Amino acid sequence: MLPPALLEFTLARLIHRGSILGSEVVTARTWPRRIGVRAMQQAVLVSDTSPVTLYPHLKGKQTLVKPSQGSKKPKGVGHLKVREEKAAAERPRSELAHRVDALLKVAQREEETVDHPTFSEEELLSLYEDILAGPETEMERQQEDLTPEQRSLEDVEMVEAVYERLREQTLEEYLDPQSSKAPWLQHAYHRRILDQVGKLMDLVLRGDDAPLIPIVTLSIQEWNALIRICIRKNDLESAERSLRLMKRTGVTLPEESINEVVKFYADKGDVSETERILNSFVLGAPSDRQQHLHICSHLRASPDAMPTSALAILHAYEEQLNMPAQKTYTSLVKHMLSVKDSTSNAQAWDLFYHMRYVAHPVPDAFLYTTMIRACASSFFTIRASEPERALDLWTEMTIDNNIAPTVASYNAVILTCARTGDKKYVHEAFRLAKEMLDSHRDAHGELLYVPDQHTFLALLEGAKRIGDLSRTRWILAQISRVSVEEPSLGVTIDEEVMMHVFHAYAAYDPPFKRGIALLLEESQTAPASNDTSTTHQESSDVAVTPNTPTFAHVAPQSRAEVIAEAELLFGRILEDGGFSFDPTISFSNVKLSTRLLNSYLSVHYKHGTLEAARKLFLDLFVDLDMGRNARTFREALERCMYSHQKERQFALEFGGEVFKMWQEYDASGGVADARTVEKIHVAYIRLLALTKDLDAALDQLRAFVAKYPPSALRHQPAKPGLRSTKTVLTGSRPLVRMASAAEVPDSHVPPFVLFRDIDVLHNRLVASGDVNGIAYVKYVCKAYEWALRVRRDEALKAKPVDAESTALIDLEED
Question: Where are this protein's PPR repeats (predicted)?
Answer without folding.
Answer: 219-253
